Amino acid sequence: MCGIVGYVGKHKVKDILLEGLKELEYRGYDSAGIAVLQEDNFSFYKAVGKLDNLVQKTADFNPEGFAIGIGHTRWATHGKPTELNAHPHLGESSYVVHNGIIENYQEIKNRLLADGVRFLSQTDTEVIVHLFEKYLKSEPTPFDAFKKTLAELEGAYAVLLATKSLPDTIFFAKNGSPMILGLSEDNEKIFASSDAPLIGHAKDVLYLDDGEYGYVTPTELQLFDKNDKAVQPSLSALPTSKLSAQKEGFRFFMEKEIYEQSVVISDTFLGRIQDTGIHFEELDPALFDDINEIKLCACGTSFHAALAASYLFERYAKIRSSVEIASEFRYKEPLLMKDTLFVVISQSGETADSLETLKMAKEAGLKTLVICNVDNSSMVRLADASILTRAGIEKGVASTKAFATQMSVLWMLSLYVAKKRDTLSDEEMLHQLQSLREVPNSVKVTDTLHEKIRRLSKRYLHGHGFFFIGRDVFFPLALEGALKLKEITYLHAEGYPSGEMKHGPIAMADPDLITIALMPKHMLYEKAKSNVEELSARDSTICAISPIEFDKADDFIKTHQRDHYMLEFFEMMVALQLLSMEISVRLGNDVDMPRNLAKSVTVE
């Protein structure tokens, strides 16, 4: 979810780049940088942390007149968040910024190292600029060198490249990562990862398609498609609202964040899923030495992720796992044993109750790990180790993509610990890794699914409540589904383990009680089916979510046939998020800012 900006023109290039990066902060980042080429000289600045750090570094840099510039906000994937790893990346006479991942970067890097090229960073991006400069020496023009470079890249990328060889030109390419080109009334060119940085500067925009590439100068815009054919740019009018532009065409931030879960989960996986196991660059393997229990502690949605993870740690890593609600744990005088790894999960890293439990664990001498979305947050600074979820900024108060990325990290972490403890066979590990790779596809929202749920939502505006039920990891998912509904519809909902219905709650069953039943094919399907049939026999209204048709369901949301229950988990997660959102829309509620709630709970 990194951000890119670029500029060719005669106005204040530094201000345009920094303002553009500011508009992209919502995408999330841990470092930022700019490079400006003016009169055959490059000036570049990088800073770790918030954009304000970069603003301070550039305070005395005030170029006037014509210049070209590129800028970037980076989420660390290959390499830690350091100034050396921040973009732009430098060759002998060129700079590049890049979003995405170059899948074959190691192969390219090894060849360049053999040629004597010196690398400064740990990133995959740096190979682009060095490869370009290699071909710059042999190709007839810099653009030919750029084309030859692109031909070698495998993976997803949005690239801007500037070189002293053509000091009035920016080369660009897009494949799988967003890139927009804006044109002003006096023919300035501005690049960005979304519309918002272009508003106020550009009049028309070109939304680049995958495989397209080209270059811009003060007087030219040359565009080519994936088949190397020159194409006529198709310009569109630019939206006028920056808030609307940040929503990227969606009605609500929550809707946008549901749809972008596929992208952020891919970001979460970058550099971590390897051929034979999971690699967390940020973890010292010794963190798990002499550990016999993992205690997970969190609040709200993060608690549901922790509860689901406890099943995975015990199932795959064969390690005792316990889960605590932070607001209760801090007052229960808990027994904290030194052989316990204390794991705190938080979107913001500032949740007051969770932060206090982390302090308790530190004071008791436990090893601590934080799973968080915000670098430099209080929890990340305090814990022995941290794993960033890379979800980007989540503006909707009701969490969606934060939960999705937490679950992605926790599944990976359970396999990481399993590898260390040697509790999974090589064959089973490979199956798990392959299933992980399929998660981004499993959370893609199809028009068919969204329209089905939108139409169903009108039937769930009344009644005296909802039961969300599921078994195993689908019980925490049921809890999360119920929480989403409560948060944004203000309707009463409860999550239960399916098998617990007959132990009391089934007394509530009647036609005005709506049961949302999670019925995965690969996890206790027959047991779950029996539990739902018990509710159906009491005339409860049933909405089944399953890949298998269920004849006793009043409504049915069909999911895809998957070969792993966790892929079913992620797909059902999306269905529950959409259902809550569409019911909230029909009730006329504020989807992004539900009453009485705050995004980060920093008080008790």
Number of domain modules: 3
Instruction: List low-pLDDT spans.
Output: none
Distance between the termini: 32 Å
CATH topology of the largest domain: Glutamine Phosphoribosylpyrophosphate, subunit 1, domain 1
Radius of gyration: 25 Å
Task: Note the total helix count.
Answer: 19
Instruction: State the name of the first-level CATH class of the largest domain.
Output: Alpha Beta
Beta content: 15-25%
| CATH architecture assignment of the largest domain | 4-Layer Sandwich
Helix residue percentage = 25-40%
- Using DSSP, what is the number of strands? 24
Structural class: alpha/beta
Mean pLDDT: 91
CATH H-tier superfamily of the largest domain: Aminohydrolase, N-terminal nucleophile (Ntn) domain
How is the main sheet built? 8 strands, antiparallel
Shape: globular
Strand order of the largest sheet: 3-2-4-1-10-9-11-14
